[in-house]
Structures
1.
Amino acid sequence: MSASPSPPAIRVDAEVRANQEEGAENRRLRLGVPGWPGSAPGQFAMLSPGSRGAAERYDPLLPRPMAVYRTVPEAGGAELEILYKLSGRGTRLLADARPGATVRVVGPLGVGFPLPQLGQRALLVGGGTGIASLYELAAAAQARGPVVVLLGARSAADLMGRADFVALGVDLRVATEDGSEGTPGRVTELLETALAAPDAGGEIVYACGPTPMMRRAAEIAARRECRCLVSLENRMACGFGVCLGCAVPRTEGGFALVCRDGPVLDAGSVRWEEAS
Amino acid sequence: MTVAVDTEVNLGGITLRNPVLTASGTFGYGSEFAPFFALDRIGGIVAKSLTLEPRSGNLPPRIAETPAGMLNAIGLENVGVDAFLAEKLPLLPEGLPVLASVFETDIDRYAEVCKRLSGAPKLAGLEINASCPHVKSGGIEFGQRVELLARLVRETRRASSLPLFIKLSPNVTDIREMARACEAEGADGISLINTLQALDVDLATRRPALRNGLGGLSGPAIRPVALRMVWQASQAVKIPVCGIGGIMTGEDAVKFLVCGATAVQVGTANYLNPMAAVEVADGIERYAAAHGFARVSELVGTLRPYASSR
Ligand SMILES: Cc1cc2nc3c(=O)[nH]c(=O)nc-3n(C[C@H](O)[C@H](O)[C@H](O)COP(=O)(O)O)c2cc1C
Ligand code: FES
């Protein structure tokens, strides 16, 4: 099954409803987005770097791509939840946005995840902020077959969205590098173990996180002959295919645009050694 | 707003409904913006620069954010002139002035691209991107050496009877000299500025921020430099000037008109706000109305000197 077609993107000023701490460096932003046309699992939006005050600010200049973590439809639009990590000036300014402030949103953008076939077991591998791309996929995949979610972070305090995945009732397994929660080590080791189990075979693997993690997940899946999809987190200026800044080299030659052809791409189509 | 403002301008023989075009490389081939606004609300578009054959660009990273700006080195990636004519141009609405942008690595190839574009029914004009490295001169930009620029204008002029605009590189000592060369060789107008050559460093790796090393700087950071060059160029020639560089709002655009630009192009702003070009057009109209200008064209070249005292 391929990803469902996306409604056309809108540009809209959204209202901050909440912007709360979610562990050490992570924040959970809730936005009221008028006219939000809905989105498919794995799609993203561009958010202005911080709230738009009385005077327009142009430094930092570029909007930030953010996965749509969760949407709740409501009259005249939707509430969008975004999970993000304080990782630079843009996200720090975003963290200062108080309820009532305005954040510019352009979305929904990109092509999301193809869903598992009926009855097919899905393995979702999320590392760091990559976890934010996987919640709606987990929910949608649950309607089609068993779902295993593997989450990894440096430590328990860095783990985002954990309680939501627990509430979904998926088979959740956690790895932390410092061993403060779940299995000590990397999330890709959990993937290796899951695919080596005697009852394994024929899974579809989804991975989102740091590039080395996705590359490793792709290798493990390929060895087990499982289809593997990755969701890339590249630098972007526009998010809708016009600046050509987010290009990633393809194995067959040429480039894919992460914002337009992705962010979800077949792991085998990416030339990882040149993917920056 | 009490009085109706006439926003129409004439740019080198092309009638524009308002003076706002979109800058090459920042607006795709146009139809990407159709979800955001009706394209005929702006004056026109300049499409992504085209080469003779399709080209894929540089390895990533291709862009980097800088203070109030960005660096890019995309590397000539485009669909090629034939695919543009067959697949991209037909998607654009009738009646919207479209300029095709041309770049190549030697003059014969520039001329050949212009020839292929010349028959196209929907094209309003050509913009020659003179900021590309000339292979035969060891990579110096066409727009950096006046004899080379003059030859480029002469040959592209000969190749097409469409209105011809030359987009100038700002990476020169004297922009007036370049502007005069374009006028002398029969260009219908000049567009400026293209991006400023620049460099940034990734301190985690101590490598250049871009894979290509050098890149082009754009955005609000370059606006005062662009204004200076537009003012100098418009003083030096009689052909119309299209002002480009860091325009985010209608007021930014009005500054370019005041400094002598007949029209403007909105570039990087399209990335952060896909409706930027429309908002710039509306903002120009508001400024004109608030300041008692019945025609937007009356703003052009109205920079006032200080009264001399002593
Ligand atoms: C990512 C990017 C790609 C560009 N590609 C082109 C191009 O193909 N041809 C061209 O003439 N100018 C190109 N430009 C330059 C712009 O058209 C414009 O001259 C420049 O960005 C300055 O205007 P701005 O500050 O409003 O962006 C590009 C600029 C950017 C940022
Ligand atoms: S971010 Fe601009 S083309 Fe992808």
2.
Amino acid sequence: MNLAEIQAALFSLVRGDRETKVAPEEVVGGGSLSPAQRVHVYAGMYVARTQDAIREDFPKVSQLLGEAFAPTVAAYVEGYPSTHFSLSMLGRQFPQYLRETAPGPLADLAQLEWMHCEVFVARDCEPATARALAGIDPERFAGAKLQFIPALQLAWLTHDVRALWRAVEAGEPAPELKPGKTPLLVWRKEHEVFHVALEPDEALAIEALQRGESLGAACEAFAERADPAAAAFTAIGSWFSESMVARVLL
Amino acid sequence: MFSRVKLGHGVGLRTKHYAQFLEERPEVGWVEAISENFMGIGGRPLAVLEKVRRDRPVVLHGVGLSIGAVAPFDPTYLRDWKELIGRIEPAMVSDHLCWGAHGGRYVHDLLPMPFTEEALEHTVRRVEQVQELLGRQILIENVSSYLTYPSSTISEWDFLSQLARRADCGILLDVNNIYVSARNHGFSADDYLEGVPVDRVAQYHLAGHWDRGDLLIDTHEGHVSDPVWALYRKAVRRFGEVPTLIEWDEGVPELEVLLAESAKAAQVERDARAEQRP
Ligand SMILES: [Fe+2]
């Protein structure tokens, strides 16, 4: 066997791929332990390692899964093999996997946990202050664009899982959640990560800005409000005061 | 030619100790950081590493380069790694003699190499490629292993030594890994030490392992075992004073315990050096 053949065979044995066609004794030597036992050492560590990684990044979902945790992670890594060099990225498709196999609050909670993970280590960026807006000619204001910091993510979840998050954290029983589209914003201020539920119009305005639309166009999202201008003003002010804005582009 | 740096004794920078490291600025010669934990990121971890770096030397130690894999290097890995190295200016940069990627997938493990001419040739080229990209030498570390390949034709220490000479890189000698693999595969740890060229060894690792009876497992948990201390003493006598790291990654203890283990290594080193003198 050449190097490529050895690696292809052992890789598949360690991962426990169902389609593995090579027997351990074709790749690995024996001795006091059989080739199968030796491969098993690595395969067992692979299972433990992947479970530890998911447990670390999804502590709340892991806790709620209880006994189902181990088989769920095993099925996940089989269906979604790791394609990133860092083990810390293993969970990036776990919320998606849960959504496919068990749609509901658990998948939403997983997504929120993953957003926390990504936002916690997102690349740094000095936030802009509201002074950046103060200098803008009122006529050009509507045409200005905002860039948010890398450590900010917005997602429309199918349940408002904030109560579930709090309950798991407090060790209380999981509350019954009614389905309902909820935009959750996760961001980092200093080194701490926060999440908040947004009004749908504010979420639409942020998404418009993320797409590169102007403040004027984005703030059309507030048209249904009693005082759209005031609503837009309040929202924009809070984005700056919460250190969410990276730059104002004119 | 590999130029050694004298740093003394170091410990790993682990999340559990972040606050204490910043507040107490413990007396350690240097700090090891796992490269992948700081690549392509920002936030608190990177801020802590940068602060720690202001006080003392940092070495970057990787677990995900997969130097021995036939799979091509991930360009993102190389880019982020180089960026981090530029930012931290580490005293040393290292990864393992192993592979863990195949066909764009990862098992996040340090799988052993078959010790063949083909694998040696391949690994030499890969180390050269990396060193050229980084514009600096790297260290390659021996891993603990639980299997061997019937296709191997070279001893592990010969493979590692030839790699270091041909690719012109340094060797990170993990003394615990030598002990674990020697026991698992029935070779002599002394032969291993004797087989490695003195001028290439630029760092030692010490760690705890788990003796399962029929197999030794490298756990990086608990105190360094007595036979590993004994082997370390021999290593110091052969290779001299080389920067030494205590690896304790599972059941990470209080910082004081880790520092005491590192102080013990310093003592063992002093004793070994004293025995060496006539
Ligand atoms: Fe090591």
